[in-house]
Every structure is written in structure tokens, then in C-alpha cells.
What does this fold into?
Amino acid sequence: MNFENTLIPGEFVKRYKRFFVDVKINNDIVTAHCPNTGSMMGLLKSGNKVWLSKSNNPKRKLKYTLQIIESGKTKVGINTHLTNKIVLDALQKGIIKEFKYLNNIQKEIKFGNNTRFDFLISQKNKEIFLEVKNVTLSRKKGIAEFPDAITTRGVKHIKELAKASKKDYEIFLLFVVQRNDCNQLVIAKDIDLEYYKSLIKAVKTKLNVLCYDCKFLPKGIKLNRKIKFKIK
It folds into this structure.
């Protein structure tokens, strides 16, 4: 997945009203859009190096969008709007080994009355629903965690996936860790115990969980290697 334009480096100043961040570029402070509704725990330290993209749309109020924050020496992709694009690129290129023999990929497919799953995949006479979650949190070296805030939407998706499995769909949950310094992912049950319980229950039935980290390139971000999912 490539960025539309070359990213612009800057220095993080502050985040406010959830969707706004101030960033210092050279000697100027610009306000950029923050495309992440989570807490972004551990990333919002003043002085952290960041990278912004600049929009080509002359009518857009906020010209800049926050894309990457450097925490320590690790780049972390925070734009949740890009996660599905990263996954789609990986599916099309056969990077996800569980989905190498695809017949068809559909995006944003409605299920039931008020649910949309990220992807519906056709593979070897199987219909597979794939839901994607973006991960940025790491509180312990080498370990990624999800979620970084209470996610009622995430719990809903797990329950809806379970319903889909009863209608003979295969069900997958893919955690995209937008960083490259972790070798396993765990559920942050101290942050959202309900999500933890719901996921554990679903895994014991038919939910397949995949975790992949990301590689940061000069022009974009791509899905990289599979990492372990550990239930603790």
C-alpha cells in the first residue's frame, strides 16, 4: 500500500478533540487530522517524531493527516483508514499464506441487519468472512496488545462473526500490527475484559485468529510477517 504523496517529517506537539493533532514542521505548527479513534496509548509523547501526508484536495480544511508516530526507535502506523488497504494489497499479492488460492475478494459486505464485515473471500468453494483490526499498542517489549481502549464495536463484530459461522461461513479475525518490533499479540484484558471474554469464547468454537506485523517502506506500508497470537 503506497501513500499518495511523499510523507513529511515533523515533531508531535499534542492531540486534542480526538481528531486533531498539532505538529511542528521546521519552525511552524500545523494542525493535522488524526485518523484514529483509539487512545493511542504510549504514543502521544511531546517531541516524538511523526510523519504526515498532505492532501491534494484544495477544498479540504485540514491539509495534513497524521500517518506514523515514532515511539522509541519504532515506527507505528496510526491511520486506521489505511488498514484495510494494507490487507487488500496483501490479499491480492498472496502475502497472507492462509488466503493464497483466492477466487474472489469483496469489500465491506453486509451481514444481517446492521453489520458489515471488511472482506468476503471466496476460496476453494469456501466463503470466508474476514474482519480486520488495527493494532498500535505495545506496553512490553516484543508484545503487541489489542485493544487500547474499550471497544463495544469490536465485541459486536466477534458476536456477528459467530452468527456467520452458524450459516456455514468460515470466520477469520486479522490483527494488523502496524509496527515491526513485536513477535506476539495478546488481548489487553485489563483494558477491555468483555472483549477478552468474547474473543476467547469465539476462539473455542470456530473463530480463526491471525496476526501480522507491518514493514515500513519509503513509499508506503505493507503486511510483513505472521506473528503469534497468545491467549494469556
